């Protein structure tokens, strides 16, 4: 486990993911309240300190810092490549993503991409992306009812799913209960990239979710098992 921990530490230097994402950002009234508390910061200044954009992704200045860090810090090559892959993913340079409909349901992106080494064709790294879709929503399959959350994980650049060991561990902070679900193939991207989904009865309130595990993929060169380091999200189910 030393390698994933080291990678998370290095990635954490680049992406301050502890900051609130878009769905958790203070409202204008709350920002004004913070300013009136004697902090000496107006709402615009407070907003500028948030490192994430309206989808919970790092802003460009932090992506630039991550790229510089990866290129100049004395990192093992696989960590350097993983960080650069994450930057490319956020900047739109990743291949084989999932098309998100403009009129689709509201979703929350997991706070950082995850990486599996020796994944694509058994030799190249794959960047994984996770999203959470609070119900009620018919998509993504198998859909989510009121008080449920659908989770989606995509291993970018890979072939189709052969088998999935991906899991989501979740905690409802409002109702003080927790659970775990497995993500499996429900027909999304049947030709690849490998995409697995699952629905959890999370209830309503503030949800903390951790996504982790592996996906076995069908590749042209040779099948592969892609083991991804954990990624996490915090979001609201209303």
UniProtKB/TrEMBL annotation:
The keyword Signal applies. Residues 1-24 form the signal peptide. Keywords: Signal. This is Secreted protein. It comes from Corynebacterium felinum.
């Amino acid at each position: 486990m030393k390698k994933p921990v080291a990678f998370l530490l290095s990635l954490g230097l680049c992406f301050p993911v502890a900051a609130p994402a878009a769905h958790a950002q203070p409202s204008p009234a709350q920002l004004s309240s913070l300013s009136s508390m004697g902090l000496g910061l107006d709402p615009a200044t407070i907003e500028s300190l948030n490192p994430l954009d309206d989808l919970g992704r790092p802003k460009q200045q932090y992506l630039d810092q991550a790229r510089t860090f990866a290129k100049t810090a004395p990192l093992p090559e696989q960590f350097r490549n993983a960080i650069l892959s994450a930057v490319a993913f956020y900047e739109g340079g990743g291949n084989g993503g999932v098309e998100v409909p403009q009129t689709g349901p509201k979703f929350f992106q997991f706070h950082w991409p995850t990486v599996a080494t020796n994944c694509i064709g058994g030799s190249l790294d794959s960047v994984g992306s996770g999203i959470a879709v609070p119900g009620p929503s018919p998509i993504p399959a198998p859909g989510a009812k009121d008080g449920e959350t659908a989770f989606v994980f995509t291993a970018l650049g890979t072939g189709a799913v052969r088998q999935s060991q991906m899991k989501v561990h979740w905690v409802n902070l409002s109702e003080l209960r927790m659970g775990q679900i497995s993500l499996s193939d429900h027909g999304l991207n049947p030709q690849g990239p490998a995409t697995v989904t699952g629905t959890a009865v999370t209830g309503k309130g503030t949800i903390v979710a951790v996504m982790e595990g592996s996906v076995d993929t069908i590749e042209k060169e040779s099948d592969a098992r892609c083991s991804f380091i954990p990624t996490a999200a915090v979001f609201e189910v209303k």
